[in-house]
Design a protein that fits this description.
Layout (H helix, E strand, L loop, with lengths): L1 H28 L3
Length: about 30
């Protein structure tokens, strides 16, 4: 169960990084 928790935390961290990266690229590409 701890392995699953670590994997879920890793995916959540990657998701946050992915969202922030997409927001940064989106702000550069489009004004909104």
């Amino acid at each position: 169960m701890s392995v699953f928790r670590n994997v879920s935390n890793l995916f959540k961290k990657l998701g946050d990084v992915y969202v922030s990266y997409c927001e940064r690229i989106g702000s550069i590409i489009s004004p909104f």
